[in-house]
Amino acid sequence: MISKLALTAVRGFCMGAADIVPGVSGGTVALVFGIYEQLLDNVRRGARALGSLVRLDGAGFVAHLRSVEWSFLLPLLTGIGLALLALAAVIERLLQDRPEEMAGLFLGLVLGSVVVAWRLLHTTTVADVSAMVLVAVATFVLLGFQSGPVAEPSLLAYFGAGAVAICAMILPGISGSFLLLMMGMYAAVLGAVHDRDVLVIAVFALGATLGLALFASALGYLLDRHHDPVLGALIGLMVGSIRVLWPWPNGVGIISEEAGESISGTTLDLPTTENWLWPTVLAVAAFVIVAAIGRLTPTIDHPLAETAEATA
């Protein structure tokens, strides 16, 4: 039992580490480790509990809370939190000092994750492939746009930023930090955390909670009924997000605490001859490791359709 909890915490730690990097999502890591659908289902159960609470349905609130697999969710969230606390400064420093190597490393991770996700498709119909291609192209194009830093954002802006950014936790392909950068809210949110602005943090957390509940419910509903096309779209999202990781030397862009600096990692430049070797080596190594983990890690027998019926 203890070893299982520890393993779940390690998986959460890996998810948290990925969420720090713009262009890599904790949802991608969950997919590789075979816990994606279990995570999504438990978030949906929590969303149902919140819905019951809003309706003042005490019995339903308690029933849905009891249906949540806390022995899975709590260690996972603990691991995510520990990663954010322990690795945020380290990874941000590496993104600044070694952007090419980091880009190569996470490029391999994402490509390996695409292979893992492809194995989860039951079929590969024209509809699945079309959804994949369309989402990949749309994501690639959209990631070329970026917003300048928002000056003195309102509380409503923090609420919206939280609601959007948190979706990356269960959405393979794009991290919450990159979504904040695209919205121009990264420096503002980071500043609020550093300044310990309780009101701003609370509003951001409230938006994140509601956004996660709504998005998880919608995504789970779609996966229940259109598993392969939706999974194909998620694969397309991961493929399109490669724009943030390639080409070098821009890497994933420099994450700065300066309010006037924005991301610079989505321009389409080719790598120079001086900085292709180690990023390529790290990309290949990451790809092989992730693909191997995906093959060795059994997908947990936790189909969304069955759990949805059990908790409805």
Gyration radius over CA: 19 Å
Amino-to-carboxy terminus distance: 28 Å
Number of helices: 14
Low-confidence stretches: 253-257, 259-263, 299-312
The level of helicity is over 70%
Shape: globular
Overall structural domain count: 1
| Percent of sequence in beta strands | under 5%
Average pLDDT, all residues: 78
Order of helix and strand elements from N to C terminus: HHHHHHHHHHHHHH
Q: Which class of secondary structure composition applies to the elements?
A: mainly alpha
Which sheet architecture does the biggest sheet show?
A: none
Number of strands: 0
Quick structural summary:
The chain is an all-alpha fold and 312 residues long. It is 70% helix and 0% strand.
How does this model look, in words?
It is a single chain. The chain has 312 residues and is mainly alpha-helical. 70% of the residues lie in helices and 0% in strands. The protein has helices at 2-20, 26-32, 36-54, 58-67, 70-97, 99-119, 126-142, 155-165, 176-183, 186-194, 198-225, 227-240, 277-296, 304-311. The longest helix has 28 residues, at 70-97. It is globular and about 65 Å long.
Q: Tags for this entry?
A:
312 residues, mainly alpha, disordered C terminus
Topology, pairings included?
Blueprint: H1 2-20, H2 26-32, H3 36-54, H4 58-67, H5 70-97, H6 99-119, H7 126-142, H8 155-165, H9 176-183, H10 186-194, H11 198-225, H12 227-240, H13 277-296, H14 304-311
